[in-house]
Every structure is written in C-alpha cells, then in structure tokens.
Amino acid sequence: MEGDSTLQLRVFDLNCWAIRYLSKRRQERMRLIGDVLRQERFDLVLLQEVWSEQDYSDLKAKLGGCYPFSHYFRSGVIGSGLCVFSRFTILDTLLYQYSLNGYPYMLQHGDWFCGKSVGLVIIKISGIIFNVYVTHLHAEYCREKDAYLPHRLVQAWELAQFIRHTSKAADVVLLGGDLNMHPEDVGIRLLCGWTGLRDAFAEAKHFEGCKDGCTLIPNNCFTIKTELLPFPLGIRIDYILYKAVSSFMVNCEELKTTTGSAPGMDIPFSDHEAVMATLHIRRQREAASATLSTAEPALADVVTEAQTEVGVGLQAAQRQRYSTGRLAVLALLLLLLQAAAVLGTLAGLGGQPFPKLSFSLLAFLAVGILLLTTGLHLFHTIEVKMLQGTEEQMRMALRVLQERP
After folding, report:
1. Could you read off the pLDDT of 60-77 as tens digits, one per residue?
2. Are 214 and 311 contained in the same domain?
3. Nearest-5° angle of CA 292, CA 297, CA 303?
4. Could you tell me if residue 288 is inside a domain?
5. Is 206 among the catalytic positions?
6. d(CA 38, CA 45)
7. CA distance 297 to 402
8. 313 assigned to some structural domain
9. Most exposed among 270, 286, 314, 346, judged by the fewest C-beta atoms under 10 Å?
10. What CATH code is carried by the domain that includes residue 203?
C-alpha cells in the first residue's frame, strides 16, 4: 500500500505463440520473454499458448527469483497453454474447460485439441483478495464467414457465468487473455455487460503503444498479412479487464503495448503484442453496490443478439447431426447387404464365385464410414445439447432482465 490507502499492481499479459515444432524461433522468443519479465518484475504475469510444459518449466526456473509462485493449467490433448506467474502467494486455483471448442476434424485449426479453458488463481495482497482469471477463446479465422462464432459465444457466456459465480468472495476481479474478439463484437459486450468488467484500454488515463491498442498488427513479422488486409492498423483481441467487487475502487493509470520487434532485436516476443497495465486499487469509505450491470437496459439487447447467433449455430449443428446420422445408417445398410450376399453365396444361392477381395475392401470401407459417421453424429449430438443448454440459459437471463422494473 502507498500511504496505507492505495495499492499499485502491474500486470503483464501475452499470447506467447509457443507451439513446439510449429512456432517460428520459439525457443529464442521464450528466452526473450523470460528476460523482459525478469527485468521488469511485474506483479502478475498472464500467459497463453505456452503449449509445451517444458517451456513453462524453463520459464519457471528462470523466473523463480522474481516470481516465486506460478501455476500451469492442464487440459485437453495438448494442454490449455495457460499459466500464471505471481510475486504473491497463490492461495487456490481452479480450471473450467469450455463445453464447446471447435471441431476435431478441423485439423488445420487445432483448437479442439487444445482444451480451451479459463484458469482462476486466488491471491491475497495487503489484505485484498484478488480473483485472477486467464483464458484463451476459440480463434476467428474468417471474419466474413465465421463458422466458430456460436462456439466462441458459448465460451464467452460460460466465461461470464464462471466469473460471476466464483468471484463473490473476491475484492477485485482481474481477467487477462486472448479473447479473439474485437471490442465491438457481441461476445465482448456480453462478457463485460454480464460481469461488470471494465476494459483497461478504454479506462486508462495514459496509453502508450500501438494505435487503438491493437495487439495483432501488420508490421509484426509473424502475423499473416492477408488476414489483416481489412484492418490496416491491426486488431485488438487481447485484453486486460477488471472490476472491484466490494468496498474497493480500481483504476487503470497506465496501459502499454509492445509495438513489434523486441528492443534491440529483429524479432518480436510473439505474433501478438503484449499488454501491460498499471492498476491502482484503493479502499472506499463506503462499500460499493454489489449490483451487477445486468440492470442496464442495453444488456437485454446484447443477450438477445447473442442468443440469436447461438440459435443459428444450433440449427447448423442439427443439420450436421442429421447428415452424419443418415450416412451412418446408409453405411450400416451396406454392411447388412454385404452380409446377406455372403450368406447367400455360402448357402449356394449364387451361381458366380464369391469375389472375396472386392467384398473385403467394400466391407472395410463401409466399416470405416460407419465408425467415422457414428463418431461425428455423437459429437454433433453433444454440440446440439450444449448449444440448446446455452440458448435456454440466455433465454432465462433475458426473461429476468425484461422483468426488471
């Protein structure tokens, strides 16, 4: 505390883009990230896309003297990629894995294998309880035809619900991560409106860095330039969001982003720019109202818009479930016809010799199609149920909002 009245907290957030064997100059960049973290001595460090636990272990060994407390969140096939480094004792942790996260057959994107999640660490600084969340939502890939929008909205809704229901005992809530949404997108408006979180970029008294706070910029040598053609200045998809829950106030005094190459180097830390916030927390004389921003009339419109998009995704998932189910039934019928033909031949009903090789190949093909389509049918059935559940939750929330006086 400064004068027993104000606490200053410096937060660093970065999508590290550390995918073993795929990310360019990964080991060199991870060393650079470790060097700047050790030099700057932030209070909290929130990292995403640290897919390799070895990279996390190397960072932990390098930063142990500056950040004695850390946690790596494990989930999915290759891990969540989320980790937190802290100068203060971590009291507890919790991980929530999102119910929807893309499609397993979209191998070129790979989000499904990552187990996208939100991680929570609880820390106590000068008597103030902080709930610190770190997350990474599903990527967009194509803004004009965003097939993953319903899944990302489900994730944003689950993130908002998770924060609301786990932060009731906290004094300050802090969220950092790659949300893969533009500031005006419905998912961001839903998240901030439903939780009351405030955007550090919009609230900062002083800003220094990329124009408009962009964190994916064209002059970063690792970005895919064609994806940013509609956005010559870049896009802002990495955020630090915060709010005070009880008798405290939080203000963002300063926000910075990196601007491409690391100081004195020919490469940046990542394909994303880092976000660094200086927050001031002070106690109020009177306790702040615990009422969340759900009373805002505009929030009903946001929930309606999100529910509509989830409904569109639900209809698409139902069509996919029907198509894969129909293919599975056709493959099963083909197998039954083959079995009947084999039995007829063995019973001496056919005059021609039995073509074993052709039947075997056709049987293997039918079995393969049956297994694949059955698996996809089950997956899309789960997807339908998750989308239906989220749509029902949103409908209930909308009813509550509309009944407010």
Report:
1. 999 988 999 999 999 878
2. no
3. 80
4. no
5. no
6. 11
7. 8
8. yes
9. 286
10. 3.60.10.10
